[in-house]
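Notebook p. 47: complex prediction with pyridoxal-5'-phosphate.
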Amino acid sequence: MQFTDLKAQYTALKPQIDAGIQAVLDHGQYIMGPEVKALETRLAARTGVKHCVTVASGTEALLIALMALGIKAGDEVITSPFTFAATGEVIALLGARPVFVDIEPDTCNLDATLIEAAITPRTRAIMPVSLYGQVADMDAINTVAARHGLPVIEDAAQSYGATYQGKASGGLSTIGCTSFFPSKPLGCYGDGGALFTDDDALAQAAREIRVHGQSARYTHTRIGVGGRMDTLQCAVVLAKLERFDWELARRREIGARYHRLLAPLTALPNERGLGLITVRPDRDSVWGQYTVFVPQRDKVQAALQAAGVPTAVHYPKPLHHQAAYAEFCCPDCCPNSIAAAARVMSLPMSADLSEEDQDAVVAALAAALDALARDGAAPAAP
Ligand SMILES: *Cc1c(COP(=O)(O)O)cnc(C)c1O
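Predicted complex, structure tokens below:
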């Protein structure tokens, strides 16, 4: 069993993907070829925004978003510590300070009610993460941001395709950023990413920044980066769009089925009990990761591995417990993030996960939790 089954996806889409790649080889415009614009047009329409700018990766999208907003040394950007390092990294790279605000314990997304207390005269942006494929509480976040005149950047690397009050993730704030890393809900065959905005000036800035700040050839109007997405990778994403709506529907079904099958295990006594991610009623999740909370994670992971079920941990430490980010926060801050990092475990998830494999995952997890009790490592059920 694969953690993310990219092979089955390629098999299903082989004619489209091969033809898309061959077309690029035939025309030879490897940089900024016609597939780049074609993809941007398709994705802007899907996301319900005016502009899509493809870039070299999700990380680059976040970096370019901050640069387009003029974030600089000494500025503060509010974000979650319970995320992939890229979110905090791009803030620190610009000499700005990531200000970590804790998460909601049941969704693992930024707790919007804690943001206002973290705003200072140096705050320049709020960067929520739509973790595991579910959008953060964007209405509440946008409201706080508007009250303080701050832009909001959604890190939608794991949530592209998800909806919030019927609107698309990526199109819910000043700028939305996503990633086409192969294992993300919409992946390419290497690195790629995109940013989304309705703001003409920010879109223009992002387009210039991704090509070394050029407003015209060899006219460098601003400091930029080498941040374009390859034409070949755009061709791969275009081909994958052919089945993306089906994949999203499958991901939602598989997520709902996991929730249904695992629900009985949440009724076990605390020490053995499983926890599930809550999906709020006004949104859905595309399950960029299908993540659960488990006790004694090392033991459970080892048992699943022995049963042939691959798992992963997203993420074993909150950013403020990583050496590189320790200076930005006190060790005891963000207790919900610390608690989540100790318990989260992600299960196999992809649109091509079969019911048989999913049943095997659930059975292995039930057996592993059962074994914890028999071990005497945790009190037995009453
Ligand atoms: C994957 C990911 C990124 C970075 O995307 P890359 O394309 O790998 O650079 C950023 N933030 C989150 C939450 C991610 O999951």
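Notes: The first helix runs from residue 6 to 27. The longest strand covers residues 51-55.
Next step: compare against the earlier run before touching the bench.
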